[in-house]
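Consider the tokenized backbone below.
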């Protein structure tokens, strides 16, 4: 809104969303004076952790591998893998994905300010054709090559972090403020061996 920008120049609201799929128990918590609905399950806790991790990775949305697996093939291609992590309480690594949300023209993006993204505004195929990721095809291809060398396959045994860093540097040339690239580069620098190699575990 222009009125807010006039009063607080450069003001922006940033929100993070963690998307995960699983069961939950809905229950009412409180007293007869105030009752709130709550949802309890390890899946709800994981979604909350993903939401918190959006700040670490500098993205608006973090999607668990379980949720990513439910997407159509076309939509999966618009997402990019961000990392593979093992969360507390689990021994199974989980892949994290993001969708690089585009911005409106008023926020220096490409989407028209008057676009109607409501439920009745357009069908899903038109939506995904219109609301393309803010990253370019070239960026996503370079990112994918970097992640192959960073993750090193399912077991991580073929990781080649020096090569991964070269691709990540190319990503930063294209998007200097890209949150996931910066987060992973910082992580590599903090835990890599003297030769830049990935740790054994």
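A designed sequence for it:
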């Amino acid at each position: 809104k222009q009125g807010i920008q006039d009063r607080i120049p450069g003001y922006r609201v940033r929100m993070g969303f963690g998307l995960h799929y699983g069961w939950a128990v809905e229950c009412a918590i409180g007293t007869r004076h105030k009752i709130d609905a709550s949802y309890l399950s390890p899946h709800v806790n994981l979604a909350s952790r993903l939401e918190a991790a959006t700040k670490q990775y500098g993205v608006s949305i973090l999607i668990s591998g379980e949720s990513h697996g439910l997407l159509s093939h076309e939509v999966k291609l618009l997402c990019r893998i961000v990392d593979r992590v093992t969360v507390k309480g689990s021994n199974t690594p989980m892949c994290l994905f993001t969708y690089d949300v585009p911005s409106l023209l008023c926020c220096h993006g490409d989407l028209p300010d008057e676009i109607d993204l409501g439920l009745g505004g357009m069908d899903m195929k038109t939506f995904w054709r219109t609301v393309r990721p803010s990253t370019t095809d070239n960026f996503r291809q370079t990112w994918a090559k970097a992640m192959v060398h960073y993750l090193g396959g399912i077991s991580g045994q073929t990781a080649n972090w020096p090569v991964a860093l070269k691709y990540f540097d190319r990503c930063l040339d294209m998007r200097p403020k890209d949150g996931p690239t910066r987060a992973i580069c910082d992580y590599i620098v903090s835990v890599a061996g003297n030769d830049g190699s990935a740790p054994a575990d």
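Residues 42-57 form the longest helix (16 residues).
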